[in-house]
Amino acid sequence: MTETSPSPPGASPFSRASDGGRGRLADVMATRGGSAAPEAPFVIEHREALIYMLCEAAELEHGIMCQYLFAAFSLKQSADEGLSDTEVAAVRRWRATVSQVATQEMLHLALVHNLLSAIGAAPHLARPNLPAPAGHYPAGVQLALLPFGEQALRHFMFLERPEGMDLEDADGLAAMGQAVPVMSERDIVPRGQDFATVGHLYRSIEAGITRLAAKHGENWLFVGPRRAQATQAHFGWPELVAVTDLASAQRAIDTILEQGEGPRGHWRNAHFGKFVAVLDEYQQLRAANPAFDPVRPVMAANVRPPERDAGVPLITDPLTARVTDLFNVGYEVLLQIFERFFAHTEETDTQLKTLADATIGLMLRVIKPLGDLITTLPVGAGYAGATAGPSFELFYETDYLMPRREAAWALLTERLAEAAWLCSEIRTGRGSGLAGQLAPVVTAIREITATLAAHLPAESPHAALATGPAPLESATLAEMLATENGLLNGAAPAPDQQRDPATGERRGRACAKRRRPGTGCRFWATATRNGRSGGTCRGPGSRGRGG
After folding, report:
1. What CATH code is carried by the domain that includes residue 104?
2. Which of 488, 510, 536 is the last residue of a domain?
3. Among 40, 116, 130, 523, who pairs with 539 as Cys (CB 3.0-4.6 Å)?
4. What range defines the domain where residue 424 resides?
């Protein structure tokens, strides 16, 4: 084992996460990594197969980002939570590191969408709810929401590990599933392919792009509109390169690879090395003080039961369920706006910037404060002492917005207005004790709503939302919310429905009709409540069967 150099006088005896991974664990990892040959790329022979694997990459970036945010939200934040000043400083470093990595995963998600758009494909922001179902990803890949700790950090290291590094996943997270057969050149219908690491997936995608460009020409491959590309001008990331040809596609993939696992043999400043450094410092602080606990008693729990038996507990505290619903609605609208950006039609440059700014505003001013708040709220009866975490639940796919701009923007402003109403209802109802924490959230939602509504025609009913931060009449928004999301009035009772702790009403199991697992269906509740066809699902893409 390589010896570390002594600390300078007055320095902390612990390695810091910002030191680039220089502790004992980092030294051990350095002796083990980067010696094996990279995995051979899997076959990508057609545009459809390339789109399929880019969608797989988008799902992974999306799910991994949620994992990192959940872990960051679970950390304590002050000495009031039983930490010394030294421990508070360390925990804040860890939170900043994990949050920075989550932000870069968001950048990677944007780069993947630039790649999809460049080859003529639509955005893909669907994913299974977490934990991901067994077999959804290749054997060896598992995604789950974990509070910060050694298990989570080892799991993150496993996901971000460089190719050729021999690591096992954290205990309890070994993925279930069997290897799938490799596609042959004769296959025309794409299917999932095995990849050992995230780096293996991207190198295979890069090889497929290079192969298709060489075979058919770059003009044949890159058919997407240049204007659909996200750039630094929109989101502020200098690394957000517009993909318009083979060279820029390779630069986008290189950015993802270098930030995730680092250039081969140089992983200390990449995501993998950052997690190694954090785990190093965490283990040293635990060794110095076995009672040190930097994490709130957070557990993963859902507001509503999933459509499959995933073994995820349900939040039973009504207030916690209500605040988590608000978080999930904010997250849902963020995805819808992000998707609208990449699938826009007649938006002007100013309107595209408005969409980009709205996603950033929702992330920083709505998702972040609500995520912090939820980890202080109880899960409820049956889980004494445990607090909830943001569940990142997706109840249906986010691609149902109309392709016409005015209709899509009207629906976005309407949904944001509903979220503002819900936030106000929580503040004045059972959550009056949280009024101070929720005040800036409702203000942010109303301001973002107004920025979108300002781009609607004056004759549009939704344009009234641009006149100021004041909410619509309570009765009007209550009706909209009841019709749109079922948060006020539950669906008609069914044998498999459970009570919603947020409302005291019955709630149905999620609909399995959508094309991706892990999504539920608000349209079942709406159809049943309105007496249509005796509870027939009327959601987009449904075939008229009950949910």
Report:
1. 1.20.1260.10
2. 488
3. 523
4. 318-488
Q: What is the rounded distance in angstroms from the CA atom of residue 296 to the CA atom of residue 276?
A: 22
Same domain, 250 and 379: no
CB–CB of 513/505 below 8 Å?
no
Q: Could you tell me the mean pLDDT of each successive run of 10 residues in the chain, 547 residues long?
A: 36 45 48 50 83 92 94 95 94 95 94 96 88 64 88 87 61 39 41 64 92 95 93 93 96 90 66 90 93 96 80 93 96 94 92 95 96 97 95 78 87 95 91 92 96 94 75 53 45 41 44 38 35 35 34
CB of 379 within 8 A of CB of 299? yes
Preceding peptide of 131 cis, ω within 30°? yes
* CATH number of the domain to which 378 belongs: 1.20.1260
For helices 271-288 and 246-260, give the axis angle rounded to 10 degrees: 10
- CA 364/CA 330 separation, integer angstroms: 11
For 220-257, b where at least 16 C-beta lie within 10 A, e where not — what string? ebbebeeebbbeeebbebebbbbbbebebbbebbebbb
- Can you give the pLDDT at residue 435? 93
Q: How far apart are CA 42 and CA 424, in angstroms?
A: 51
- Assess contact for 373 and 437: CB atoms under 8 A: yes
- Give a yes or no: residue 277 inside a domain: no
Classify residue 378: in a domain, yes or no: yes
Residue 279 falls within a domain, yes or no?
A: no
d(CA 396, CA 264): 39
Which DSSP category does 263 fall into? S
Question: What is the rounded CA–CA span in Å between residue 532 and residue 522?
Answer: 14
What tokens were used for 182?
A: 């490799």
Tokens of 149: 């700790």
In a domain, 430, yes or no: yes
What is the residue type of 66? C
First to last CA, the chain: 58
- Per the CB < 8 A criterion, the answer to whether 11 and 19 are in contact is no
DSSP letter (8 states) at residue 298: B
At residue 303, what is the residue type? V
pTM over 0.90, yes/no: no
Question: Residue 86: its pLDDT value, please?
Answer: 93
Q: Are residues 383 and 481 in the same domain?
A: yes
Query: What angle do helix axes 85-118 and 47-73 make, rounded to 10 degrees?
Result: 160
Domain termination site, one of 446, 473, 488: 488
Question: CA–CA separation, 461 vs 113, rounded Å?
Answer: 33
Is the separation of the CB atoms in 58 and 125 below 8 Å?
A: yes
Looking at the fold, whether 242 and 323 belong to one and the same domain comes out as: no
The count of domains in the chain is 2
